[in-house]
C-alpha cells in the first residue's frame, strides 16, 4: 500500500485521507488501490458504519496524476481509477466528504456518490475532461444533468468551467459551507451521526433513495468505453503532452 492514503477507524467511522499535499493530493494508481481496498473493507465490516473522505494540505484532490495515469494507459492497462469509481458508486456504506481547495475531475465527480458533502470557501470544483480530450466519468454524464439541470451540466462539463462552493451548494452538490478550521470536525460529526443510526435501516434508506443502480453501472460502463477511445485519440495525446510539458517547465 501507499503512505499517500491514510486510513483510520474510530467510533464506527472509517476516515480516508488523501495525503500527498505537495501534489495537491493528485491521485496515483497506488492511491486508487488503497482507497478501493478501504471502501471494500468498509462494506464488508459490521463495525464500520460510515466513511469520511478528505484531502490534506488545503486541497481535496487535483484529480489524476496525469504522468502516472498516462504511464498506465500507454501500457494498455485499465486505469486503476476505474475500480475506485465502480466501488464508490456501488458503496453500501454512507460516505461523507470534506472538501477544501481544489476538487478536480474525479475530485468533483466522486461527490455525486457521497451522502453528505461539506466544503470551505476555498473549495473550487472543476471537471476538465474535455480540455484533456477525454469524456466525463463516474456516471457524471447522467448524474450532472439530473442534479444540475442540462444547462448547468453543459456549462460545467462541456465548457469545463470552474465553480465555487456557493454555486455547488445551489446546485445541490454540497450540503453546506464551513470555516476551514471546522471542516474536518463538521464532516466527522456528520459521519458519527450516520454511524449511530440503526445500520440495516440506514442501508435500506440509502437503497430506496438512490433507486436502481443499474442505470449508474450502465453509465459507468459506457463512459469507460468512450474514455478508452478518447484516451487513444490524437486530441488527448496532444493535450496530455502539452500539460506535461508545462508541468516540467
Write the layout of secondary structure elements.
Layout: E1 5-10, E2 13-18, H1 29-44, E3 50-54, H2 66-74, H3 80-89, E4 95-99, E5 102-104, H4 106-109, E6 116-119, E7 124-126, H5 140-148, H6 150-158, H7 165-171, E8 176-177, H8 180-195, H9 199-210, H10 214-231, H11 234-248
Parallel strand pairs: 2-3, 3-4, 4-6, 5-7, 6-8
Antiparallel strand pairs: 1-2
What brief labels describe this structure?
14% strand, 249 residues, 2-enoyl-CoA Hydratase, Chain A, domain 1, alpha/beta, 6-stranded mixed beta sheet, globular, 50% helix
Describe this structure in words.
By secondary structure, the protein is of the alpha/beta class. It has a single domain (5-181), classed as 2-enoyl-CoA Hydratase, Chain A, domain 1 (Alpha-Beta Complex), CATH 3.90.226.10. It contains eleven helices and eight strands. Strands 1-2-3-4-6-8 form a six-stranded mixed sheet, with helices on both faces. The chain is globular. The model has no long low-confidence stretch (mean pLDDT 93).
Amino acid at each position: 500500500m501507499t503512505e499517500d492514503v491514510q486510513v483510520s477507524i474510530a467510533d464506527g467511522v472509517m476516515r480516508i485521507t488523501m495525503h500527498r499535499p505537495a501534489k495537491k493530493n493528485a491521485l496515483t494508481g497506488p492511491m486508487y488501490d488503497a482507497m478501493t481496498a478501504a471502501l471494500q473493507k468498509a462494506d464488508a465490516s459490521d463495525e464500520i458504519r460510515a466513511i469520511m473522505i478528505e484531502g490534506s494540505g488545503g486541497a481535496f484532490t487535483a484529480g489524476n496524476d496525469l504522468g502516472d495515469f498516462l504511464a498506465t494507459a500507454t501500457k494498455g492497462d485499465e486505469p486503476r481509477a476505474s475500480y475506485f469509481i465502480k466501488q464508490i458508486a456501488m458503496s453500501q456504506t454512507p460516505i461523507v466528504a470534506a472538501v477544501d481547495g481544489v476538487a478536480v475531475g474525479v475530485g468533483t465527480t466522486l461527490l455525486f456518490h457521497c451522502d453528505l458533502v461539506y466544503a470551505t470557501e476555498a473549495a473550487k470544483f472543476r471537471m476538465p475532461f474535455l480540455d484533456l480530450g477525454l469524456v466525463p466519468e463516474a456516471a457524471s454524464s447522467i448524474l450532472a444533468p439530473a442534479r444540475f439541470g442540462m444547462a448547468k451540466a453543459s456549462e460545467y462539463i462541456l465548457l469545463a468551467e470552474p465553480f465555487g462552493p456557493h454555486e455547488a451548494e445551489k446546485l445541490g452538490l454540497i450540503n453546506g459551507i464551513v470555516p476551514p478550521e471546522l471542516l474536518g470536525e463538521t464532516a466527522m460529526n456528520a459521519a458519527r451521526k450516520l454511524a449511530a443510526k440503526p445500520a440495516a435501516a440506514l442501508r435500506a434508506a440509502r437503497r430506496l433513495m438512490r433507486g436502481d443502480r443499474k442505470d449508474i453501472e450502465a453509465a459507468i460502463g459506457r463512459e469507460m468505453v468512450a474514455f478508452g477511445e478518447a484516451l487513444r485519440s490524437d486530441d488527448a495525446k496532444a493535450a496530455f503532452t502539452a500539460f506535461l510539458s508545462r508541468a516540467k517547465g
